[in-house]
Amino acid sequence: MKISKRKFGLSKDKEIVYEFKIENKNGSYITVLNYGCTLTSIVVPNKDNNLVDVCLGYNTIQEYENNDGYLGAVVGRHANRIRYGKFILNNKVYNIAINNGPNHLHGGEKGFDKYIWDYSIKENGLIFTRISKHLEEGYPGNLNVKVEYEFNNNNELTISYEAFSDSDTIVNLTNHCYFNLNGENKGSILNHYLKLNSSLYTENDKNCLPTGELLNVEDSPFDFRRCKKIGLNIEDDHDQLKNGLGYDHNFVLDSKDMLKYVGFLLGDESKIKMDIYTTCPGIQFYSGNVLSGDLGKNNTKYTKRTGLCLETQYFPNSLECTNFPSVILKKSDIYKEKTIYKFSI
Questions:
Q1: Which family does this protein fall into (predicted)?
Q2: pTM for the whole thing?
């Protein structure tokens, strides 16, 4: 594995931001910033054996700082939504930012995606670390966080998360990469094929916040148990699609294995296939419904549904929905999760 580092730019605070490249023996590679542990490119071969960048991203640090969408970043301390920006832990109420309608989203006003992380380089990957201070964005506990990226000769991208705190807190980490397997500058993802090994999904209210109800995918636009085109049912007259302006839902993974096979995404033109494995209990499928047209790499306008996210996670709003897997991290415990994206033809 060949790992290199270059200066990517200066942050608003005049700190140097670095971009790291992990390249395998076949010439495939990923690039990652120490700003937000942000994936800036994933370059793998297509059906014609031409290298294709399948990860949406920007050319400058200023764009990552100023644009919304969390492109490629690690989000936390709690990914996804928390109702009304508050939660109760050990009988104490914690108030956190309301930054998505009436709710909290992806860690708040300055989540993990907006920090420059410490880094170290290992044989086949990168290690990023930081300490999220007690009451940073309102969350309790000094949280030590480690995120590792590995990329191997089989074109497998592994993202590993680890965290521990000096007091009880909540943690739910994910990566917010936007994928377009035809190429990040190749337009809509509606003709991509998706398979998810999930029989249930979490019902959303009109603000995309889970209500606590689990809905069966049977006979609905949310049934991806058999591979189908993403665009096939996305405009159906269905309340849940209206609530999300498309797909923006947490799918409950059927497997009870420690490392679960989630399913796959397939680029219709490139024939690039991305198999997904995770230790997490759920995955948020977001079909890029509100991408706002920011200019990305290659001066490509990232408009509605030019990329999609498949974010492995614990369920949103879990503290209120006690039937969901818990996001509470006890002082004596270690949060440890892993996700693998495997690219092939």
A1: Belongs to the aldose epimerase family.
A2: 0.97
| C-alpha distances in Å from residue 210, one per residue of 107, 237, 249 | 17, 20, 8
Of 168, 177, 166, 120, the closest CA to residue 146 belongs to 120
As a whole number of Å, the end-to-end CA separation of the chain is 21
Half-sphere exposure of 251 (CA within 13 A, CB side): 29
Is 238 catalytic? The answer is no
β-pair partners for 65 = none
Q: Which one from 78, 104, 176, 249 is the annotated catalytic residue?
A: 176
The amino acid sitting at 105 is L
106 has catalytic annotation: no
- The H or E element spanning position 222 is none
**Which residue from 314, 100, 324 is spatially nearest to 212, judged by alpha carbons?**
324
CB 57 within 8 A of CB 296: yes
143: Cα separation from own chain's centroid: 20
Please report which helix (H) or strand (E) contains residue 66, including its range.
Answer: helix 61-66
Cα gap 322→40, rounded to integer Å: 36
User: Which residue among the candidates 136, 148, 150, 311 is catalytic per the annotation?
Assistant: 311
Confidence of residue 309 (pLDDT cuts 50, 70, 90): very high
Confidence of residue 124 (pLDDT cuts 50, 70, 90): confident
How far apart CA 90 and CA 84 sit, in angstroms, is 18
Q: Map out the domains of the chain with their CATH numbers.
A: 2-344 (2.70.98.10)
The pair phi, psi for residue 204, each rounded to 5°, is -105, 150
143 phi and psi, to 5 degrees? Answer: -105, 120
